[in-house]
Design brief:
This protein is α/β, with parallel strands linked by helices and about 325 residues long. It folds into 2 domains: about 1-70, no CATH class; about 80-300, Undecaprenyl pyrophosphate synthetase, CATH 3.40.1180.10. It is built from 11 helices and 8 strands. The protein has a 6-stranded parallel sheet, with helices on both faces. The chain has a two-stranded antiparallel sheet with strand order 1-2. It is globular, with a radius of gyration of 22 Å. The termini are far apart. The chain binds farnesyl diphosphate. Farnesyl diphosphate binds near residues 109, 152 and 286.
Amino acid sequence: MVAACGSSTTRKLLQSVTKGAAQSGPFHFREPAESTGGTCELGILTRALNPKEMAVSTHIPEGLDRKEAEVFAKLDASSLPRHIAIIMDGNGRWARKRHLPRIAGHRAGVKAVRNTVETAARIGVPALTLYAFSAENWKRRPKTEVDFLMNLLRKYLKDEVPTLNKNNIRLRYIGRKHELPQEVQERMAWAAEETSENTGMTLTLALNYGARTELVDAFKDIVEAAMSNGGIEHLEISEELIDKHLYTKHLPDPDLVIRTSGEMRLSNFLLWQVAYAEIYVTEHLWPEFRGRHLLEAIASYQKRERRYGGLIDNGGGN
Ligand code: FPP
């Protein structure tokens, strides 16, 4: 029934996935680089499935490594968060633990970005937003570190466009872009343009972003729009109107916020938009974070009961 290759763990996983499950064609996942380094087609169901089996379909998206596939197999793929927002924290601590300069932590953080973005796109998360550079970072970090982060961002954008295109990812930004160095702004505009035709996941980088400055900018925008459209006397302010003037107008509100390095703070990130988001904090430092950790966060999210201020079904409190 199952034509398997790979380790005994992958065979067990495959058997658990196929046990009672429907799969109309072959499915694939990669062995993690550390085990085989290759792609391995693992299984084909060779008999007709009965309707009961058809009801519990598990499809492992192509490109996941073995550990990711193990976690993904336990998820409800039909109710992924529509928007995941991540506060990437702990680059400095990761470097310090290794007696390395802080910039080594940021460099290692890029690998975590790459892996997390690809996994999110592969499993079909519609929107992922990464808090890469807060408005406060300018003021509170040495100029050498800020310059390094700017150069790292420029390099990331140049190197990453082919991978973003391969994964059908559209790149957008939120934050006060006009305050960033000119050459960074140009590279940002180029990368956004290069990926603008993609129709899969929207990857939004928060750069020189602060939630309070976003609200200030939104309110200014609302007043300016009203002034050039007959004055503010008839201006009716509503939640929908504010939504339309936020940097995030291209996105649904986040369903899930992830923060690495164990800190229990929102750090001025998407404060308006996360009103009903589930929050997941992991002890992993950002450079250690990988696609499988994203999947674990989604698994935790799927166990939560979201009430939006209402009551739970059995009549309990909110
Ligand atoms: C927080 O770690 C991280 C940042 C301020 C920068 C995030 C940048 C990256 C992950 C790399 C570049 C990203 C892109 C998209 C190219 P921290 O320095 O505050 O760590 P600490 O709290 O341990 O000191």
